[in-house]
Design a protein that fits this description.
about 450 residues, alpha+beta, Uridine Diphospho-n-acetylenolpyruvylglucosamine Reductase, domain 3, Vanillyl-alcohol Oxidase, Chain A, domain 3, 3 domains
């Protein structure tokens, strides 16, 4: 019986340094795989899955390891199946506004390539210059532009994927419509690598917007920024981004990568409009009036360089917070937009009453708040207190008709809380779907559900 190295010469490693590098992701958790495989095409993935199925070895699909909930952390002795070498843009169909890519294509690289063709792929996670599209699909990634354009799921037309037993399936359509049988494509999107290994993705793309205006709104109070979000949306204005940073986040970014943000600002909104110049100029003027009535200061990016500098600051938030506290607990709750100001107030109250610093930023336009509890893991009492605080944050989120995860998924870190949101009947149905796809529980085992076991 052939070994993996014989099946995939030059694509397999058991070297300690490789096992170490592929044993962690952005969650801060770690595992120890037995083998790392770098697949270069679908045939390689099929070989790995057949090999693992015959021997009962777990396989962990992995893109770039930028996930925040431990979705790519390997079980002990598992095979980490990396798709990073599957990085070809196979087709750009300008007539039908679709592209076909392999799972390892970097999001930002596709964005840049599409711009050359005057096309546009809206989903833009903060890690877009590192994360892979396969990972984006597996996690149903969002991003700043979700407020206007939606999330990854809204752009996936079809998939090629390999099942745990090595069979290849093709789901979805290339057309704008298609209702034939169950929608397996949408089932696989957001399944966190637990049902199949995504190898190719057919994406819908859009024409590149005519123009973009970027505004920075600075506020002296948290309440005013939340009120501004509500008023902007209630005016019928739909920005393509409406980002929020609180005072702690602003200071952390300035200390990490100074771009001139005023450190005494209590909150800021990074607002971007796209479309015909006359329309977005009118909307920018309306937004300026709204913010000034709330004692906000408005700054407009004068050119593309200034605009990119602002976005560089926004995308530096996560690494900046790690410098503030390497052991932070990161959550990504979502509440209805109308409850956004209330959620911010509740978070501030929890921080003050608990004595644990809670730093907030995120996508205000769609109510998605990245909540960061700045804790010291070495302080066991404080860390235990923070874990209880997470549960209370989730309870309040659900009380306000929200969800405990907007774009990071469940993975390992939120397993204990999934039953707070998903009722028992629905949860049991999800587990049965997992068992239909992966009866032996070999594909990314231990993720999402606590109670499944290998057979």
């Amino acid at each position: 019986m052939n070994s993996l190295s014989e099946l995939l010469p030059g694509k397999v490693s058991t070297e300690p340094e490789d096992l170490l590098c592929y044993g962690f992701d952005a969650s801060g958790l770690e595992g120890r795989p037995g083998t790392v495989v770098w697949a270069e095409d679908t045939t390689d993935v099929v070989k790995v899955m057949r090999y693992s199925h015959e021997r009962g070895i777990a396989v962990i699909p992995r893109g770039a390891g930028t996930g925040m909930t431990g979705g790519s952390i390997p079980a002990s002795g598992a095979i980490v199946l990396s798709t990073e070498r599957m990085n070809r843009i196979l087709e750009i169909d300008k007539e039908n506004f679709t592209v076909l890519v392999e799972a390892g294509v970097i999001n930002g690289r596709l964005q840049r390539e599409l711009e050359r063709h005057r096309l546009f792929f809206p989903p833009d996670p903060s890690s877009l210059n590192f994360c892979t599209l396969g990972g984006n699909v597996a996690e149903n990634a969002g991003g700043a532009r979700a407020v206007k354009y939606g999330v990854t799921r809204d752009y996936v037309l079809g998939l090629e994927a390999v099942l745990p037993d090595g069979r290849t399936i093709t789901t979805g359509v290339k057309t704008a419509k298609g209702v034939v049988g169950y929608d397996l494509t949408r089932l696989l999107v957001g399944s966190e690598g637990t049902l199949a290994v995504i190898t190719k993705i057919r994406l819908k793309v859009l024409p590149l917007p005519e123009d973009v205006i970027t505004l920075l709104a600075l506020f002296g109070g948290l309440e005013q920024s939340g009120e501004a979000v509500q008023r902007i949306i209630s005016e019928g204005i739909v920005p393509r981004t409406l980002e929020f940073l609180d005072s702690w986040t602003i200071r952390a970014v300035e200390n990490y990568k100074s771009i001139g943000l005023p450190k005494d600002t209590e909150a800021l909104l990074l607002i971007e409009l796209d479309g015909p110049p006359s329309v977005i100029t009118r909307d920018a003027e309306k937004i300026s009036v709204i913010c000034k009535k709330l004692s906000g200061e408005i700054i407009m990016a004068e050119n593309e360089l200034a605009r990119m500098k602002l976005w560089e600051a926004r995308r530096a938030v996560s690494p900046a917070l790690f410098h503030l506290s390497p052991a932070k607990i990161n959550e990504d709750i979502v509440v209805p937009r109308s409850r956004f100001p209330e959620m911010l107030r509740r978070l501030r109250d929890l921080s003050e009453s608990s004595g644990i610093r809670i730093v907030n930023f995120g996508h205000a336009g769609d109510g998605n708040i990245h909540v960061n509890l700045m804790v010291d893991r070495a302080d066991k009492e404080q860390y235990a207190k923070a874990q209880e605080l997470v549960k209370e944050i989730f309870r309040i989120t659900l009380e306000l008709e929200g969800t405990i995860s907007g774009e990071h998924g469940i993975g390992l870190t939120k397993q204990n809380y999934i039953s707070m949101e998903v009722p028992p009947a629905e949860l049991e149905l999800m587990k049965k779907i997992k068992q239909v796809f992966d009866s032996r529980n070999l594909l990314n085992p231990g993720k999402i559900f606590l109670s499944l076991c290998s057979r």
